[in-house]
Amino acid sequence: MKLRVLFSLAVIVAATGELHAQYSEDALRFSRSQWGSTARFKAIGAQTGVGGDLSSVGGNPAGIGFFTRSELSITPQFNGYNNSSNYLGQQTIARGDKLGLANAAVVFHTRAAKPKGAKLDQGWLSFNFGLAYNQTQGFDNTLGYSGKNPKNSIADYFAESASNIYGAPNTLTSGSLERMAYDNYLIGYDNPGGYYFPETEVNNVQTKNDLRYGRQSEVNFSFGANYSNQFYIGASIGIANINYNTSDTYKEKGFNVTENNDYELSYRQSQITQGSGINGKIGAIYRPIPNIRLGATIESPTWFTIDDSYSEGLDTKYGKNRVDSQFVNDDEFYDFTYKLRTPLKISTGIAYFFEDKGFISADLDYVDYSTINFAQANSGDIQVISDNNKAVLSKYTDAINFRIGAEYKIDKLMLRAGYGSQGDPYVPTDSKSFKISTYSGGLGYRINNYYIDLTYQKVSSNSERWPYALNNIPTSIANVKNSRNNVFLTIGSRF
What we know:
The chain is mostly beta strands. The chain has a single domain (about 5-155, about 200-495), classed as Porin, CATH 2.40.160. Helices cover about 15% and strands about 55% of the residues. It is built from 6 helices and 21 strands. A 14-stranded antiparallel β-barrel has the order 1-2-3-7-8-9-10-14-15-17-18-19-20-21. The protein is elongated, with a radius of gyration of 27 Å.
């Protein structure tokens, strides 16, 4: 691997707002996972203090202490997304959808042995064990934006990068992005001044298409116990997995003043990221009175080992109505393996139960994203590790997540609703906020030992994208409104 090229790539891309080869941004993405759950708790949202649902296997493990029978369920999901981007005054819409598996879980109930004559409602009453698969994040997404740029070209970015890293053209590294740009006649070199300059004119048409796919998931092994129907404790181990892939294409059409010809360039980027890790949770739920439950969970960091493969390529053709000349480059690949530690998460919750009519619950999470940490794996480049740890400290801060939800029973039918806000992880720089809001509602039906739950969930957030950045020169930004419409269906049985 060409470490100098990889280092420059990581630093430059860090400034662009694009996420390829930018490890600190990926680390944040992988640190914002949520507890997997059934459709019931997808609708309610707040689960830390509730318990008694298979979601507790991957959430607050103390919650499985409430089970008085064994139970299993499966939850398929439908995920749809709708993104609206505004770039240089032009709006672009992108849509897509996908089916998947959100949750599959089982809890095995074991009644505690009691000596003859002992009170059956005092002391340790049960010890339950749970196993679950949870999708904690889905990455599938498509985003596009396009517009005419009257100020600069991506060739300005290529020229600036070449001037900062290299000397005369004979020092350009073969296969580097700067070498590709020079060989494609997108940038030239000023011998007297000793710098590179763009050969393209402004008022070029820029188009960016980003494709994301993959998921983050966990397999959880949990234990929960019930003491006197008043105090519940639990612990779990999570085996986490990351599969994150991107495929992006930037295209630009305009006029090359040096070559005196129209040009069309295509800049390709792709990323394949795979990782695995381990974490743990301990939790408790306390009932000071029968109607109130107080819950708390401490989720350890997840310790990941991540393999990342990034590639890029640049092609350019000249001519308006026909191809006068064409320059094609093979993609260059840069592989990097690193260790990642995500933040500790502390969660608290309270639930109030209305006899047999339902309950209302609320949760708070505290997460300090500035504690994300990179470490070497297989003697990786220490400079890349150091720079990304510095980026984490400068860009990220702590955040509060909040959830509130309720369930109301009408005989065997349950009505549910919830709202959640995932706090902004970025150090404040202006009035913009990058929190994530979740609205949900659902129905549940119980008959004998079987149940079915259906939930609709809408997730909304705002983000900013720009294809490249220039030092001390404002870059046009695509303002993106992200919306996800998810449907979850749980089918379960007690046995």
